[in-house]
Write a structure and sequence with these properties.
Elements: E1 7-13, E2 26-32, E3 40-49, H1 53-57, E4 78-85, E5 95-98, E6 105-109, E7 114-115, H2 132-144, E8 152-155, H3 161-172, E9 177-182, H4 185-194, E10 199-202, H5 208-215, E11 220-225, H6 230-238, E12 239-247, H7 268-271, E13 275-278, H8 288-300, E14 308-312, H9 317-325, E15 332-336
Parallel strand pairs: 8-9, 8-11, 9-10, 11-12, 12-13, 14-15
Antiparallel strand pairs: 1-2, 3-4, 3-6, 3-15, 4-5, 5-7
Length: about 350
């Protein structure tokens, strides 16, 4: 076993944000690194993920996942390399996926690790296109929303890691029309010119409802929601009878301290017989093998494209997270610890 590092830096939540998180809510701390106990593996993290759902874990509220603990390292997806192992089946040099991100080094129980192949795809892809965000897009569109060939699909927050993949999968699977919303002219161009969306609009340019009706004059059959609020109201207004909604995230209200004004048209759910279902990716892990096989093939064939926005160094982990909440990323926001 090679010599271990003496210390590791890791991000701690030190107080619970009220509204938008601020730097004073967090601390980057240096902690000692110890050899792994029996059954555990010491991993040098190479990349870790920052995701919208993490904002909810900063609140002390009952939810589908426990809140982050104060004065403890935060958690999230990470890919790294084993540097010491006290667990059968893992050796120094193995590449692994785990959930102890937001830090440079992590001691992880072996049962919480998954080996990944750097020859199949770049390691960072296991946090995005072939990772949790990719499976969210795949299961949300195909299973939760019950996508069928010929459906017209609207995706909010479509230039993000999940949204961009949803739109491309819909196109590959035979959607009649794919529409996306984004927060800048550059992102709108990216959706249409690079990802192959039929139409896209900047939600900052005017009422979402008006822009969606112009982009989808014949209505929508599937809505994949990453935003909530005004976007959800617009989707209800444009929905065809028996449309299906997969609700993945409500990023428009994650940092709000007041109840959202929209949607104000929920009564239309009755007459249009809409099906609206929440989406948690952990409910669909049975699709993992099918997902990796199908999506990795599309990536190799260049049918499905993806982008990553990389922030270099653990010290930039918080800036990456806050930037992601502000929509500064195109594709998956990832913190790169290799540089």
């Amino acid at each position: 076993m090679s010599a271990l590092p003496a210390t590791s830096r890791e991000w701690h939540l030190v107080r619970r944000p009220d509204g938008w998180p601020v730097p004073e809510d967090f601390a980057l701390r240096e902690v000692p690194v110890q050899a792994p106990a029996p059954g555990r593996v010491l991993v040098r993290n190479l990349y870790f993920s920052v995701d919208p759902y993490m904002r909810g874990r900063m609140n002390d509220a009952k939810s589908y996942v426990p809140p982050f603990e104060l004065d403890q390292p935060m958690q999230g997806g990470a890919v790294g390399q084993v540097i010491a192992s006290a667990a059968e089946g893992y050796a120094e040099g193995d590449y692994v996926l785990h959930f102890a991100g937001w830090r440079e080094y992590a001691s992880v129980p072996a049962e919480h690790l998954t080996k990944v192949d750097p020859d199949l795809a770049p390691l960072s892809a296991y946090l995005g296109v072939l990772g949790m965000t990719g499976l969210t897009a795949y299961s949300g569109l195909l299973r939760v929303a019950g996508f069928k060939e010929g459906d017209a699909v609207f995706v909010s927050g479509a230039a993000g890691a999940v949204g961009g993949q949803v739109g491309q999968i819909a196109r590959i699977k035979g959607a009649s029309r794919v529409i996306g919303s984004a927060g800048s002219a550059e992102k709108v161009k990216y959706l249409v010119d690079e990802l192959g969306f039929d139409a896209a609009f900047n939600y900052k340019d005017g009422p979402v409802s008006d822009q969606l009706k112009a982009a989808a004059p014949d209505g929508i059959d599937v809505y994949f929601d990453n935003v909530g609020g005004e976007h959800l109201e617009a989707a209800i207004s444009s929905a065809n009878v028996h449309a299906r909604f997969a609700i993945c995230g409500f990023i428009a209200q994650y940092n709000s301290t007041e109840p959202p004004a929209a949607p104000r048209n929920l009564a239309q759910v009755i007459g249009k017989r809409l099906r609206i279902e929440g989406l948690l990716v952990q409910d669909h892990t049975d699709l993992q093998g099918q997902f990796v096989q199908e999506v990795s093939g599309w990536v190799r064939e260049e049918k499905l494209k993806y982008r990553e926005t990389l922030a270099a160094g653990v010290e930039n982990g918080l800036n990456a997270f806050l930037g992601m909440l502000r929509g500064e990323n195109t594709g998956k926001m990832i913190v790169d610890l290799t540089k």
